[in-house]
Amino acid sequence: MKLIKDKEFLKNIAHQIDLLNTIGGGVSETYVHIEKYKKGAVINVWAAGVSPESFKVVLHNNQLTLFSILHDQENPEMAAPLFNRTFVLPPQVDLGRIEAVHEDGQLQVRLPYFEGTNKPREIEIKQR
Asked: What is the rounded CA–CA span in Å between residue 73 and residue 63?
């Protein structure tokens, strides 16, 4: 039996099989874990074999949507969604300071809280 020695061919065929498997109902294992801290929260997303370019992070009002799409290299119009998750953010999250970082195969979305939200504040009572 002769093995296929063209590595580029093997890479392309593996990508095609992965894409067709996903379109045909296959599952891409994605793990999401949320860590809460005093100064904010972090959403960690692990998705095996998903490139950083495939992830998208969209903020609309107070909803944060994370998703990834598997694109076909030869046919850019052919794509399959791999992961989609929407989070409703609490009011203490500073929407202007949210950041996303992809490192070591993990997407990390950092949700900082407004400064001083954990400190009690006395509200002055006005008399009229």
From this structure: 31
Range of the domain at 95: 7-112
Residue 25 counted as domain residue = yes
The predicted-structure confidence for 58-82, as pLDDT tens digits, reads as follows 999 999 999 888 777 777 777 777 7
pTM above 0.90, yes or no: no
Q: Per the structure, how many domains does the chain have?
A: 1
122 falls within a domain: no
Sequence-distant (6+) residues with CB within 8 A of 43 are 32, 33, 34, 64, 66, 87, 108, 109, 111
pLDDT tens digits for range 38-61: 999 999 999 877 788 889 999 999
Q: Is residue 89 part of a domain?
A: yes
